[in-house]
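Quick one - first record:
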Amino acid sequence: MEATIRAGKTELRIARRAQALLLMADGVSANDTAKLVGVHIRTVFEWRERFRDADDPSAKLADAPRSGRPRALSRNPKRRR
């Protein structure tokens, strides 16, 4: 988890989840975890449920697949002339 937080190219949302997971594992309250990580307390409760029964919590850091149509545009669209 700590390596995930320190990695330079880790997405902010994944780094926040990893930091929150470490804080919760150390027994920090949900309210304090929310303040330290910079999210709403409800988000901490959702993350707590997400990681509660996980055999490998690091596998739960990434976003779950979303429903709906995939993106039609790439992140680096070619410039049209």
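second record:
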Amino acid sequence: MRISFSPQRRDDLLEVIKDGDILIINGEAFDFTSLPDGGTIPAGTVPCAWIASDVERIEDELHLTLVLPHGPNPSQAVAFPEPITVTEDGPIAIPYDEPVQPEEPTDEA
């Protein structure tokens, strides 16, 4: 499975799990097992706001683009993410930035 990303300023989170040709996106399953090689599901057809492209099967590999949420000051890796190839089932490592922790006040007088 080849996943590209479309970065977007959003405060929500993205969690994706691969189970064969099923993607579980934020808890909702999307099954692409019936998509034949060379087939395309046009963008907007899959009822998922996180899928930002056609879903295609090219040489028996799924290709799609997911919206990548990020905060107000994304790192280069999040603002310009490289596509990833996912071969194993399980949670997918989505590019993200660690939340910035507010500094603790000091008791200097």
